[in-house]
Amino acid sequence: MKTNRSKFYVTTTFAIGIFLGVTTIASGQEIQMSNIPITSVIENLARQSGINYIIDQNLFMSQSGSGIAEPSLTFAWTNISPNDALSRVLK
Questions:
Q1: What backbone phi and psi angles, to 5 degrees, belong to 44?
Q2: Confidence of residue 3 (pLDDT cuts 50, 70, 90)
Q3: Are 33 and 71 in contact (CB under 8 A)?
Q4: Taking a C-beta distance cutoff of 8 angstroms, is the pair 54, 8 a contact?
């Protein structure tokens, strides 16, 4: 009887620990940016996601060779991973 009760407590504790861990992972985090240049947003989210990337230096050049303004982003997302946020920005 004592062994069954001990197993029950260990199993219950383990199950609660797994549930809390999964809930924490699933909840993600809040990512907020305000008027940040898009290349900086990509750099920050890629670093948090552990992704290497290369941005073409000519990305913000017009066909005439003059530079165009780099767009800035403002957003606030909750319950999202940096990887998912990066995917949204790139879309």
A1: -65, -50
A2: low
A3: no
A4: no
Phi, psi of 25 (to 5 degrees): -65, -45
Helix, coil or strand: residue 74: strand
Does 65 have pLDDT greater than 90? no
Q: What is the mean pLDDT of residues 53-75?
A: 81
Give the 3-state secondary structure of residue 31: strand
- Region class of 79: left (phi > 0), else alpha (psi between -120 and 50), else beta: left
Q: If you average pLDDT over every residue of the chain, what do you get? A: 77
Predicted TM-score (pTM) of this structure:
0.62
Copy the structure tokens of residue 63. 């066909």
Please state, as a whole number, how many other Cβ atoms lie within 10 Å of the Cβ of residue 85: 21
Q: Within 13 A of 71's CA, how many CA atoms are on the CB side?
A: 7
Closest by Cα among 41, 13, 50, 45 to 29: 45
Q: How many CA atoms lie within 13 A of 2 on its CB side?
A: 0
